[in-house]
Design brief:
Length: 191
């Protein structure tokens, strides 16, 4: 009988440290999970005016999707040794760089939009895409990791300044038009 007690005691003495070690390791793992940051979903910024417009409009709204990755033309000119190049060469090199940069960085987003059948317009100076969409599309775009922010694209109406109506004057003399602004004269734009 003493032999059975001795064997049971020996089993407890061997198993207890092993059991305590397993409990300690599992406790450390669960605390590490609690201390680690939760998986966060990327949510790009949205302009307040666009958010309001999307919330209050039933139809599609025009807005700009500004990508996270933006070009660095000055860095490109320095890397390529074009600082002392003539204006035409430098201009063509920057144009090529910007268009290639936009084509490459926008490719995943444009493929996604194509797969959804959404029309868009791509811009290369600011790496952005114009889209017509609703609130659900805006939310889906905000969740993309390659999108930095959504900006409003307000409709701007230009009015053409017409010729002043011919006013009849007592002395029938015409008032000469005012001098055109400096920029129009400098560009030799037709009047």
């Amino acid at each position: 009988m003493n032999f059975r007690i001795f064997r049971s005691l020996r089993l407890v003495l061997v198993a207890a440290p092993l059991l305590l070690t397993l409990l300690w390791v599992s406790g450390q793992a669960s605390m590490a999970q609690e201390d680690s940051p939760a998986t966060t979903v990327h949510l790009a910024g949205i302009a307040p005016t666009l958010a309001e417009q999307l919330a209050t409009t039933d139809g599609p709204v025009s807005f700009l999707v500004v990508l996270d990755e933006q070009p660095d033309p000055e860095g490109y000119v320095a890397r390529m040794g074009l600082r002392s190049a003539d204006r035409t060469t430098k201009g063509q090199a920057i144009y090529d760089y910007l268009t290639d940069f936009a084509r490459t960085s926008q490719a995943p987003l444009r493929a996604w939009l194509d797969a959804l059948g959404i029309e868009y317009r791509s811009f290369y100076i600011v790496n952005a895409i114009e889209i017509q969409g609703d609130e659900s599309l805006a939310l889906a775009l905000r969740a993309r990791a390659d999108v930095s922010r959504l900006a409003a694209n307000p409709s701007v109406k230009l009015s053409v300044v017409g010729e002043p109506a011919a006013e009849s004057r007592a002395d029938d003399t015409l008032v000469p038009p005012p001098d055109p602004p400096y920029g129009i004269r400098y560009a030799n734009a037709p009047m």
